[in-house]
Amino acid sequence: MGIKAITSCCFVLFLLIIVDVDGAWTxxxxxxxxxxxxxxxxxxxxxxxxxxxSGQIFDCVxxxxxxSLDHPLLKNHxxxxxxxxxxxxxxxxxxxxxxxxxxxxGCPIGTVPIxxxxxxxxxxxxxxxxxxxxxxxxxxxxxxxxVSGSIxxxxxxxxxxxxxxxxxxxxxxxxxxxxxFTHLFAYWTADNSKTTGCYDILCPGFVQQSQEFALGRTxxxxxxxxxxIHIKVLxxxxxxxxDWYLRVNGASVGYWPKExxxxxxxxxxxxxxxxxxxxxxxxxxxxGSGHFESEGTGRACYISGMRYQTAAGGYFEDIDPELQALxxxxxxxxxxxxxxxxxITGYIFLFGGPGGQC
Length: 358
Description:
The protein is mostly beta strands. The chain contains 2 helices and 23 strands.
């Protein structure tokens, strides 16, 4: 289990996009045709269409015909409408955040919002779930092929070809979303991204439940030394179905069915929190608020309320404060060790930096 401020030179952004030797994002004509084919599959017929304040389009599609169910392993999957094994300790009041883009307009009953796709440290305890509060910012990228965000990462911790991963967080990610807004994102893979996995619902897998809260939605960023924006994220394995479900700001967004992981994701053995950037060239983009952790809360980005489950359906408990911190570019980004604030807030750590010649 660890906290990280990481740069990356081989970050998988979309399975059909490749990086050439100059670091530019390119796709071939054949890949472009295949992408168009996949987009037709992803963009299901809509009962209703919602356009958000930031210009995103979400189609309200039949919950039983959402693109994730096209996955061959989910051919006979029955969509779970509720989770009977949801822990009592997490039945709390939702944080701020009203549906799509904050205006409280949702999809009709029986449908769910699907974002319309366009071109484009190890732990010795089994972990069944994690929850945290992410301080949200909108880092300014220096080029459209960069990425900067905050992430919670769970994995089996196995070898390269067998690692199952579920991660969720926020990021400014133009290679995926084709804009400079801050998005809620999620990612999964059953073989360390070798042949499976993708962001959000860009491939079949994640099953949407919520009529209002969708992956890929945007959030406003916090203001330096001003108003702060937060999202509360929870990922947990349902004690009865065995599926891994996602809640954001108290709302059940959806879940990753256990079938996706072929029985290889019984528990998480590795959990990480922190900031992560991608840049194929110098200079590197800012991370978090763009300011170092030494400036304190309200100015530096942070993650708080870090708790986890050590039993399926069990209570969430505070993290062990003896975590490992990894910083691979300390002159560009840094991270503080966790400190305990209160029973409500729990442990908190700060991270980020301005980037530059890293």
